[in-house]
Structures are given as C-alpha cells and as structure tokens.
Amino acid sequence: MNLDRLSELRKKKNWSLQDTADRLGIAKSTYAGYESGYRRPSFEALIMLADLFGTSCDDLLGRHFDKQMELTERGSTKLTVDQRELTEKEISGAVAFIRVTRQMEEEQVL
Amino acid sequence: MNLDRLSELRKKKNWSLQDTADRLGIAKSTYAGYESGYRRPSFEALIMLADLFGTSCDDLLGRHFDKQMELTERGSTKLTVDQRELTEKEISGAVAFIRVTRQMEEEQVL
DNA sequence: TTTAAAGTACGCAATTAGCGAATTACATTT
DNA sequence: AAATGTAATTCGCTAATTGCGTACTTTAAA
C-alpha cells in the first residue's frame, strides 16, 4: 500500500519535495516519507494530496475499481462530449434516445 | 473527518457490528470505533471497507469532488440506463445524437 | 572546488490503532 | 415482569505509527 503515484504526479508538475511540502503546509521530510513509502499520510493529508494533484484518493491508494453509474443519477460527475459539458436536456434526450434504440432492437427481434 | 456513511451503509445491508467486523476480519470494537469516529481505519482497512460496501474511498472519506468525464473515454466507469449497462454501440449512438442535437440547436439560432 | 538545492534516512516525542473486556441498551421469550 | 441473549458502546493497555527536526548524501551549477 504505497502511494506510488505521488512521485510521478509531482514530477509531472516539476515540483521539488520542498515545493510540494510547502504547498501542503507540512515538512519536507514528511512529504518525502509519503513518496518513499517510509511514512503514510493521515486522511487529512491524503485528501490534501488528492486535492493538490487533482485526483482521487482511490487513485492515490492504487485502487481502480469499476464504478457503475446510472446516467440520470450522475451525482457530481460531469459528462462531456467534445470537451463540452452536457446539459440536463441533452442528457435526458440521450436517455430517451437509448430507450428508443433498445425498444427498436427488441421489436426487430420479435 | 469521520466516516459518517459507514453506519448508513451497514444498516442498509442489515448487518450487525459483529457481522461486519467478521466480514472484515477485525474485532467488533475496532469496527465500532470506525463508525463512532473514535478510531479510524488504516488504509488497508479503508480499502476493505470500500470493497465490502461497494463504494469508493473518496465516498467513505466524505470527499465528493467534481469529476469530469468525456463520454467516449469512460475508463473503468460503466454507464447504465434503467439499470442496464450501455453497450459501446449505444454510447456512440448517444454521442452522435448529442452532436446532432447541438448542431440543430446552433442552426436554429442562426 | 565551493556552494546551494534536492533528495534520503533516522531518532525522538507524541499520538493512535487494534484488541479484549466490561458495561449498557435493546429485544424476545417465558 | 424477570430472564435471556444479542447488539452496541466505551475504555485501558500495548504496540505501532506519525510528523518533525536534524543530519547525511547526492546532484548541479558557478
């Protein structure tokens, strides 16, 4: 359970250990400990890390679980097409489209 | 930073503290500590909890960060409509539908 | 070669997790 | 109502862990 991605994420930003620690408001040695696997962050620190690097705690913890998401109950996830966020109207339209598609698919079989 | 959702998730499954602890392979008092906020799980335990309850670590940690997701690059997230998983064909159909919708919207304005 | 910054490692003090055991709350049966 | 069994809560103890400062090593630049 090492936070293997930290080093990669930090280097992608071109930050030193000190830079990163400063941004988090913790000691350099503390942050360095996270990267090396010598120490692990508290939950608070983990969340700060996820915020700082713009990723999820699951990602930092190396947990990539398959998530299922009902299109009409997306919670806080924003969907995009061509980098443009979908409006509620577009989503309900797409859902209707899917239902019709399925309906036609079934009728064709009968 | 309490794991407030645990109690809710456990009760939804109709499990006792003992049941849940057994499933996790930890002591009842340990699990009870998580729920009450008296103790917190290790990362390993947090992941076991997320696995057991079928949710994310972020969710358990009360971190609901807005995520953006391009429809054609969902990664490991499975989308559903009426509880039924979308096929690739349905997704590309929906994307096409969205694009057409937008196109028509624009033309109408002009 | 000197200097400064980056990265690594570790001792110490303080906090904390995990467990068992004891206690309290709740429900069901007699 | 009393008794019984299960569920939930709390806490002392021990072992383990965190976070920091400090020191050491490595790298890079002047």
TrEMBL record, chains A, B:
Domain HTH cro/C1-type: 6-60
InterPro entries xref list: Cro/C1-type_HTH, Lambda_DNA-bd_dom_sf
Ranges in a coiled coil: none
A Pfam family the protein falls into: HTH_3
Keywords noted in UniProt: DNA-binding
Keyword DNA-binding: yes
Protein name as annotated: Transcriptional regulator
